Amino acid sequence: MDLLKQMQKEYAGIKARPSKTQVDSSLCKGRAAHEKIVSVDIETMTTEQTLIVIKPDGFKRLLTGKILARFEEKGLQLRNLKSYDFTKEKAQEFYSVHKGKPFFDELLSFIMSGTVVACILEGSHAVNTVRLMIGSTKSFEAAPGTIRGDFGLGFTDNIIHASDSPESFIKESRVIFG
Question: What structural domains does the chain harbor?
Fold first, then answer.
């Protein structure tokens, strides 16, 4: 996992962005009121965190870098990154919301079939933004341009998991990151 360690070092060294953007007032000269460039105070944006897990199929197919790059290009920040191997107990805890559903055992078996890469992402409306970027759970129904639409092959083997709410993020990230 030398590459993963290198990526963790690089992300640890990223400095926080300034809390406010500055706009040169000369850019607004000659514009109508509705065309003026507005300075945005980033502090007023809804910044939140979410969890993604690149599943064993994505990791085995060497898609981790491509997937993480999409989130970075969108403007989300990687706050924590970890390779992880689920035990049966941790997989059951992670997917406890699906207990009793017909696909539960298959889901556990798949997530335990190999190494995953877990990442905490942060940004404006991160939960909803990430959910839109990953696409439909069923990869064969996911829109082109989404992660699952571009890389996924099935229902369980759908490349990536993402928290569906801030509450799920808290529960799921505790399973992996403690």
Answer: 45-177 (3.30.70.141)
